[in-house]
Amino acid sequence: MDTVLLKTFLMVRELGHFGKTAKNLGITQSAVSLRIKQIEDELDAPLFNRYRNNLQLTDTGERFVLYAEKIISDWENAKLDIELRKQGRKNIRLGVCNGFCSNLLKNCIVAVYENSPGITLKVTTQDEANLRARLREKRMDLILLYEAFRDTDFVSVPVSSIELVLVSSEPGMTLEKMLAGEYVTVEWGSFFNTRFLELSSRMPSPVFQCTESEFALQFILDHGGSAYLPYRLVENHLEDKLHRIESAPVLDQPIYAIYPAASHYRQEIASIIDVLKETARPAFSSLEDVMNAFQPLEESALLTAV
Questions:
Q1: What is the pTM of this model?
Q2: Which of 97, 141, 213, 227 has the fewest beta carbons closer than 10 A?
């Protein structure tokens, strides 16, 4: 299907008006109507309920939005990929989970670029569920997540870890009191949950849940409570507004680089992963430096290759 038709459909959906869409595109309103009708004829279903000065998507139209966006994105990526190949370059689509995965890449991106000749990186930051889906749909070449894939069609390589410490707004807090108090949950994944359950027979009932550790930190600073948070994030608040619960161990949360086992870019991805391992380690070693007990990443028992 012509992507011009799809782009017109998405603009009508955004503006809710054929006339405004026509003005934006520099064509007549009848041309816009004809483009929408062409799609509706192909689908044999209406995309819009037409009211006076008000267009609303039908159920079919709502579902078609996702397909239209995907087709346009895939087409643009295909054109870019072919153009880069003509130039002797390869386009690597790198997806990064929100939060500290994103922070890790920010610290490493220049090193990755400088050590990846012949590669053009396209970096996207999204939530974990979308990244997993996009990798399986072959819309990503490499992703960074907190959890490994257990599917043998994919390779999961640990590239770094985040040191998580249990902190509280109250001094002298114990693990037992914390479990019965105002606990804030950050969604670190099943690896973290398994480790946490080794400390307690149950997960505490959270008063607040989030996917970003920065949100959890701000909540605790403003309201109070406890949470497992990255040491690098909370170190400037310790012994002031936050206090470590000393009876709770430090938990190393792995960060994995994941890619398809059958990828055509295995050599390029391996090079990127090597750079991430080398540059991420010093950026995430604050607590171990402070404790004067630094242990190289590749020797960590927690980060065995999947």
A1: 0.65
A2: 141
